[in-house]
Amino acid sequence: ILSYPRHPVLKKRDDFEDVLEERRRSSDLRYALRCYTPTLYKGLVPCKVSMLKSIVLQSDHLQCVIKQVSSESGDSTECVAEEASLILDEMAHRMQLSTVRFFVFTLSKAFKRLFRSVCVNEEGIQRLQQAVQEHPVVLLPSHRSYMDFLMMSYLLYMFDLPLPVIAAGMDFMSMKFIGEMLRMSGAFFIRRSFGGDKLYWAVFSEYVKTMLRKGYAPIEFFLEGTRSRTCKSLTPKTGLLNIVMEPFFKGELFDVSLVPVSISYERVLEESLYARELLGVPKPKESTSGLLKARRVLSEDYGSMHVYFGHPVSVRSLAEGKIKRSQYNLLPRYIPQKPSVDTHEFLNDAAFRLVRIQEENMVLKPWVLIATLLLQNPDGMDLSSLTEQTDWLRHLALAFGAFLDWPDHEACSEVISCSLALHRRLLSVSAGHVQLSVTDAPQVETTPEEAVFQRAVVVLSCASYRNQILHVFLRPALLAVAMQSANSSRKDDIYNCFNFLRNMFSNEFILCPGDSVQDFEEACYLLMKRGVLQVLEHEIVMSASGQSTLAFLCSVLEPFLQGYQVVCRYLCEETNENLTEKEFIPAVRSFCFVSLSSDLQKNALAALLRLKAVRKVKV
Amino acid sequence: MASNSSSSAQQRLRIIAGHLQKRPEEENASVAAQECKAEAPRSEPSSATPVPRRRQEIMKWNGWGYSDSRFLFNKKGQAEFTGKRYRLSGLILPSLKDWFEGTFGANLQHRSPATPSLNLSAVAPPHLNQPFVEDLKAAGLSVSHDPEDRVFRAHGHCLHEVFALREGRIGRVPDVVVWPSCHNDVEKIVELACKHNVCLIPYGGGTSVSSALECPREETRSIVSLDTSQMNRILWIDEKNLTAHVEAGIIGQDLERQLNERGYCTGHEPDSMEFSSLGGWVATRASGMKKNIYGNIEDLVVHIKMVTPRGVIEKSCLGPRMSTGPDIHHFILGSEGTLGVVTEVTLKIRPIPEYQKYGSVVFPNFQQGVACLREVARQRCAPASIRLMDNEQFQFGHALKPQVSSIFTSFLDGLKKFYITKFKGFDPHHLCVATLLFEGDRGKVLQHEKQVYDIAAKFGGLAAGEDNGQRGYMLTFVIAYLRDLGMDYYVIGESFETSVPWDRVLDLCRNVKERIVRECKERGVQFPPLSTCRVTQTYDAGACVYFYFAFNYRGLSDPVHIYEQVEHAAREEILANGGSLSHHHGVGKLRKEWMKESVSGVGLGMLKSVKEYVDPQNIFGNGNLL
């Protein structure tokens, strides 16, 4: 299921249906109060929220850890147990149907104002309905916006699916009232970091596993760990994935279904917020008053939204031949065990593949193509050549298997002008010339620095749209750059160069570890099929007509190459011996004020550390 | 449930005396005790004669058990069991047809009959080692190379073996059959086998379900089947030490009957005991139903004598326990005929219990049932036998209910059903039943019974009568006959077992059952299979779990292959869930591939080096285990 097809173009995808249509026609109140009868898991052990808590606290696993912690710390077991109980109180959700109904009502209103349409693949919903009955389900949505998990619960309610419990960051909990509301609609809160806290980890993992084992509700969490500010998928985290897989490894469940969900926005609500954050303006703290202030987002048009429920992935088939479950035979199962090296590798691999599925099922709007082109032409483009090139790019993207939502019966120019209108905040159009710029023209006088900052915000906002399509071009682009820099047409040389680049960028993009050869072959195949290359036995030769495609692909990666070069130059030239990690980002930023986002800088540093070009010294 | 006591007037008297003496106490007992009416659903002792050399005269050549006993659907479409040997014999089983058709999607119109008789021309001519045969004859041993004799000893009762026979396909069979009649005969045979370099395969009851009796395909030497059935005497009984010295070819029912006549029993009752032999039990590490009182075979043996190519191995005394290095018995127990022939065994014996009582408990679901068994094991108060059948098996058991003789009984049954499902709210699709067998002196049995029922009550268990209990045990004796019936109608199946720690019992049962269902579906089996299990033995640290698996193979071109693939997957699942490779069936050739994983490379090496020392020429070349 997870090995992606050799012919990405032939991939069949489901059709979408707009779920808001019905909402626009009938009463939201009646809808929120309608009879909700979800499909249930066949092995469901009925269990109340309060019972859940005592099951967790009484579990052998938690009791074992409590004893351990108590003997290590010297506190009495009662004391530690009390602490565990408090942690659980802080964490646990208190799902209530009435609160959910309230959300359904208000979200119906909000969604109708925000979005022109919310499109869902109903076949995916049907598959999910099947999966939910068979095995416990884990929902793995992509994470681009706060909207994501609200939308997920909203849709599941809509289709009479069991409401999920959602792993949410503690930040939300600090929002008065709203935090509690979220809790009552199924969110449970986890601290952002609790690395060494054994007790916390035990409570948390047992809580999740108990819900899974009892089939209490689908578990929902974000593989990427946090919202991606760049709209580029983030390197997945494996902690929670391990927790939801362990009941299968240990034989407590026959199987677990993982359902990757791709949520894509034509316009992200947090668009400019993200850009500012990347430029170093701290993220506004989640607060209820902040939320109220943000009401003005309601007055804007965010276009359409697409939610694609992917094929359920069985953990059992995923682990087949990779995980030896009998490794758990010799230790009582309640004793916590760190994942073995093999298991860890498996988790990592699975996580990457799941994120790849998310990426592949992400719907791309025409604007994504336009943004890509505009970024490559900082001085702007004539509308006519923009139209022409967008059309060219569209065909290239489709040939590479992009999931493009291009209106069927509209002229290209029509589609483009619609997109431009929707994103008018990021551009200026004058006399048939399109350019990225700040449209809320500076009424007040601004310092040059501020002007640069404003420009950077626009560029980064725009980049976040380009980033959505990177996964389509990434492999061919790596090959294009490799060919350019290899200075040789020998396949080996090009591959080595490709491999180096791939390695270098594996913090930046989703590149499944160990798939180097496969990625290389895929890139060759795609470019060959497009007539750009000829792949011979030992050589790779560019075709005469391939020049423009290769040039385009190279410039796709150009900003990243430049960014990494800047970071390297900074490290070589500017730094004294000791640079603390905290100082690094502001320092690089001041070193070169190109549109460098903190995200890229962090990734670059991580890559350099991984490649041992830079050494981390503990002070 | 030791065999019918009609011949044992003494025992009767003792029981009646017991009743009389204990009258006053009995009035207080909450459970009405009845005289031991337990009657094993197996051969009547009067009809039993020692196993003949030509087994095919009384037993099926291509199926299970006695030729005169079989299930069939009569002209009215009702199931009945023929013959006179069993309690079920001659009875009509009215609900079996519906269960059979409903469970498997089978149809009585669609028959898959077996080849009626053995086609002698299909049997390859024997590859004789003439000097060896002549030496055997010179030594006065009974020898045969009759094709029927040879075919009979070329198989156990694995599905693929019986299926091939029914289709008339005969593979490699032994070239010669030889019947020793005492230990010395065996010594002679082994000596000659070494001298002439032939391959010896010991044959006891022929009930193996591990491909242990299959002739290895790569064997080029002459293969000699050494049939121990004529070594079937009890040589002595020592009442002071409660031991009996017995020749290893004796089969279970004969051993038990002859001991009963002297007032004793071994208490070792594997489900195959009608046909399996003492030597076979030793060679496979057999387990008996009543091991809670009497122990498994390794607990029962005091002394073993085995003839190997290196000579005879045995201990020098009959001490009950020794600290003399690793116990050499444990090289013999479970050696599966790879090291030599067990010829004589000294066994512990016990006086026949005064009183026996069946019982049963209904639980609302399997989880509760397992929790109850676990508690019984924790308190170490397991009765002689305690088994927990899952819902599917409970329904299977029900389908074997004979026609009720009176309206009153059927009314009572209806009432019982109403009470359990309606009044107590048990879901008929989830409830499961534990069957019990108590044994011992009467007062203690009643006390014990109360203790167990009290524990059961804590787990929501309701006492459900002796009848249900007894029927549960009957299932295990007739299951092999039932398989033959299934095979007449496109249904094939088999059982397999494992042992597993308590905390994993539920998970293992669920996962293995589901794996079977899933594998069948993936392999194109049209109807969902029967995939059912029971917990058949309890131990301090775990339990033995037994699976039945059967499916309708209509529309499949190679059903046996699919069956084997599914069983293979089920075994993988068992191992992945912390179960063992086998609890008592043994490894044979069927499960050899997992031996290394099961006992580690070093462990396997140890066993191999023993084999190398004991049998460097690989005379005992059945290829099992290693």
Automatic annotation (TrEMBL), chain A:
Regions annotated as coiled coil: none
Compartments, record wording: Membrane
SMART domains: PlsC
Residue ranges constituting the Phospholipid/glycerol acyltransferase domain according to the UniProt record: 137-266
One cellular-component annotation, GO: peroxisomal membrane
GO MF term set: glycerol-3-phosphate O-acyltransferase activity; glycerone-phosphate O-acyltransferase activity
Main location, first listed in the record: membrane
Pfam families listed in its UniProt record: Acyltransferase, GPAT_C
Gene Ontology BP annotations: ether lipid biosynthetic process; fatty acid metabolic process; phospholipid biosynthetic process; triglyceride biosynthetic process
Keyword terms of this UniProt record: Acyltransferase, Membrane, Transferase
Pathway this chain belongs to: Phospholipid metabolism
Homology family: Belongs to the GPAT/DAPAT family.
PANTHER family registered for this protein in UniProt: DIHYDROXYACETONE PHOSPHATE ACYLTRANSFERASE, GLYCEROL-3-PHOSPHATE ACYLTRANSFERASE
Protein name as it appears in the record: Glyceronephosphate O-acyltransferase
Protein source organism: Cyprinus carpio
From TrEMBL, chain B:
EC number: 2.5.1.26
MF term (GO), any: FAD binding
Residues covered by the FAD-binding PCMH-type domain: 170-352
UniProt keyword Acetylation, yes or no: yes
Pathway it works in: Glycerolipid metabolism; ether lipid biosynthesis; Lipid metabolism
Entry's localization field: Peroxisome membrane
Superkingdom assignment: Eukaryota
GO CC terms: peroxisomal membrane
Cofactor(s) recorded in Swiss-Prot or TrEMBL: FAD
Residues that bind FAD: 202-208, 284-287, 336-342
Enzyme class: transferase
Region feature Disordered, mapped onto this chain: 1-53
Sequence ranges of Polar residues compositional bias: 1-11
Reaction equations catalysed: a long chain fatty alcohol + a 1-acylglycerone 3-phosphate = a 1-O-alkylglycerone 3-phosphate + a long-chain fatty acid + H(+); 1-hexadecanoylglycerone 3-phosphate + a long-chain fatty acid = a 1-acylglycerone 3-phosphate + hexadecanoate; hexadecan-1-ol + 1-hexadecanoylglycerone 3-phosphate = 1-O-hexadecylglycerone 3-phosphate + hexadecanoate + H(+)
Its biological purpose: Catalyzes the exchange of the acyl chain in acyl-dihydroxyacetonephosphate (acyl-DHAP) for a long chain fatty alcohol, yielding the first ether linked intermediate, i.e. alkyl-dihydroxyacetonephosphate (alkyl-DHAP), in the pathway of ether lipid biosynthesis.
Name of the protein in its database record: Alkylglycerone-phosphate synthase
